[in-house]
UniProtKB/TrEMBL annotation:
It comes from the Bacteria. One of its GO terms (molecular function) is hydrolase activity, acting on ester bonds. A divalent metal cation 1 binds at residues 6, 8, 93, 204. A divalent metal cation 2 binds at residues 129, 154. This is Metal-dependent hydrolase. Keywords: Hydrolase, Metal-binding.
Length: 264
């Protein structure tokens, strides 16, 4: 069995897909996906996201503000209040994205630091988004003791030097369908070096559908394509990759109840 460690189930275009959320989850379960972590991007939309997924035992939530959605100062009190919910197993996604935004660096940095403090306070792991902001991301993680709550750098596309620094802080690295892209040779080399016991897999759906689904709306069922690709890349069996990344998921997000009843 496998896990989609990062998806945005409330952002899927169900009309375009011609499917309901029930269908999307059923399709994924048929592809051996046993758990879904549905990731929040704004505090305003969090309550409705939670409502959409609340009936599903195999879906967990995170709570936080995406760096590109952080328009103003982080409302840390509100974050704490919302993130205290039982279904919330992680804080984020938070982080820094300098690729798409040149003028909000300071707002992003303050918000990121605020999320780390809340994660430490609530003892829930962090989901970190980082793009074109390697040094600042690591600096803020260190300055705010991100190693205490731990977490994951999700949809990782940076270099090995950064991966190594995050691994040294005890963090996990999550890989999305980007690794299957033809031009992703640098990332493929990085993935070969990530230790198996720190690796997670995700879709980040509805964005970034993996080969052979490129151009389509990404959905959690496609995390299986990511798993097959990485198993190949690492020269191990699909089964071994599935087992290890699933164990990793439950070790990191230890508030999630294991579907198969095992304890990691
Ligand atoms: Zn992200
Ligand atoms: Zn995301």
């Amino acid at each position: 069995m496998i896990v989609d460690s990062h998806c945005h189930l409330d952002r899927l275009d169900f009309d375009k897909l011609g499917l309901s959320l029930d269908d999307v989850l059923a399709n994924a379960r048929a592809k051996q996906v046993e758990h879904f972590l549905c990731v929040s991007v704004t505090l305003e939309q969090f309550p409705s996201m939670l409502e959409k997924i609340s009936q599903y035992e195999d879906v967990s939530a995170s709570c936080g503000v995406h760096p590109l959605d952080q328009k103003d100062k982080l409302d840390a009190d509100r974050l704490i209040q919302l993130a205290n919910h039982d279904k919330v197993v992680a804080i984020g996604e938070t982080g820094l994205d300098y690729y798409y935004s040149k003028d909000t660096h300071q707002v992003q940095q303050e918000s990121f630091a605020g999320h780390i403090d809340v994660a430490n306070q609530l003892q829930k792991p962090l989901i970190i988004h980082t793009r074109d902001a390697k040094a600042d991301t690591i600096d803020i993680m260190r300055a705010h003791n991100a190693q205490d709550c731990g977490g994951v750098l999700h949809c990782f596309t940076e270099d090995w030097a950064m991966a190594k620094q995050a691994l040294d802080l005890g963090f996990y690295i999550s890989i999305s369908g980007i690794v299957t892209f033809k031009n992703a040779t640098a990332l493929q080399e990085v993935v070969k070096q990530i230790p198996m016991d720190r690796l997670l897999i995700e879709t980040d759906s509805p964005y970034l559908a993996p080969v052979p689904h490129r151009g389509k709306t990404n959905q959690p069922a496609y995390v299986q394509d990511v798993a097959y690709y990485i198993a190949d890349l690492k020269g191990i069996s699909y089964k071994a990759l599935a087992e290890q990344t699933t164990n990793n998921f439950y070790s990191l997000f230890n508030l999630v109840k294991r579907q198969d009843g095992r304890t990691t």
